[in-house]
Amino acid sequence: MLVEGAILDADGARPGYVRIRHGRVREVGQRGTDSLRGRERRIRGIVVPSPVNSHTHLGDAVSVREPPPGPVARLVRPPHGYKFRLLATATPEEKRRALRGAFARMAHDGVRAVVDFREEGVDGVNLLRNAARGTGLRTVILGRPLRRPIDRAELASLLRVADGVGLSSALEESLETRNAVARACRARGKYYGLHASEARREAPDTYLAPRPDLLIHLAKATSDDLAVVADAGVSVAVCPRSNALFGRQPDLAAMERAGISMLLGTDNAMFHAPSIWRELEFAYVATRLRGRPVSAAFLARAALVEPWRWLGELDAARVAPGMPVPPLVLRLPPDDPAYQVVTRTTEHLIVPVEPRGRATIGP
Ligand SMILES: [Zn+2]
């Protein structure tokens, strides 16, 4: 297959062609210079790296009804919020089925990696790990130890199966807990992340010490806070739809100005389908609604480039022969690629690049 149009990746947007065979990029070049001279199926479109969903709580997918009204804290705060009561009453089989559904949805959307905050301790991590088998998605699981004060043995077993720890926030977890978790993660080369400034502003030194690998939300952070976060070089995953549901918005324009490495996530699966494309379009529109527009290029990077950098796999975000993860081909007009990709992509526009049979997920 030969895609003629544009490439949008870690090196930005440019016109060009990409030749793909069996899901692998074989050749990339300037339009009209390909070696095939019309012998292969041609498609007009945009080639992008596969997106990453950088913040989810897929376990919540067991919820199938509209959540009750109320502040987010009452809904998702451990250990007695609506969400935790729901998780406690669902059977492992119900959770597994819900997780498989969420993975199928993401695979259909072309997502190739997901960073999930998994509650419910070691069992929660194992459940997600098992549900992720055979989905074709790289699943980065930040688990959460159950005992407080931190039980070293529990934390060690958690980190044997998880890729790190994702805590609720510095409002709910003591400095002692955060220090113990961050130290254990660092010692084992694992990730430590937490939610910050979601419902109300927190001072950056509360969530930046100990230093996390990932912050979630920063919906209430000021421009000065964001400058401190940018200086610290800590990546931030934002979830505009989830915030909007509770009447807030992260200031993405200020994040862009501050030079933050921003990632995009869909947050709680009980509130929103884990669709990175819906999240992208909403983020673009929401910043206009607020009168603080963000560039389409910055948003595209948050889904397609920055998460791969965060994972230490920037090669997956460069459309070139030998890229380790297959790219996506989108049937979109190639003239303004970032704008098209951010505001127009749906799963129907994804052209399959691999032989059928890959990444098909049953329940
Ligand atoms: Zn979250």
The CATH C-level name of the largest domain is Alpha Beta
Low-confidence stretches: none
- Give a count of the beta strands, DSSP E runs of length 2 or more: 15
* SS field, number of helical segments: 14
Largest sheet: 9 strands, parallel
Going by CATH, the homologous superfamily of the largest domain would be: Metal-dependent hydrolases
- Helices and strands, in order, run as EEEEEHHHEHEHEHEHEHEHHEEHHHEHE
Short structural description:
The protein is 35% helix and 22% strand. It has 363 residues and is an alpha/beta fold. It folds into 2 domains: 2-49 and 318-351, Urease, subunit C, domain 1 (Roll); 52-310, TIM Barrel (Alpha-Beta Barrel).
How is this fold's topology laid out?
Layout: E1 2-9, E2 12-21, E3 24-29, E4 42-48, E5 52-57, H1 72-76, H2 82-89, H3 92-108, E6 113-118, H4 121-131, E7 138-143, H5 152-161, E8 164-169, H6 175-187, E9 191-196, H7 204-208, E10 214-217, H8 223-232, E11 235-238, H9 240-245, H10 252-258, E12 262-264, E13 267-268, H11 276-289, H12 296-304, H13 306-310, E14 328-330, H14 337-344, E15 350-351
Parallel strand pairs: 1-4, 5-6, 5-13, 6-7, 7-8, 8-9, 9-10, 10-11, 11-12
Antiparallel strand pairs: 1-2, 2-3, 4-14, 14-15
Helix pairs in contact: 3-4, 4-5, 5-6, 11-12, 11-14, 12-14
The structure holds zinc ion (ZN).
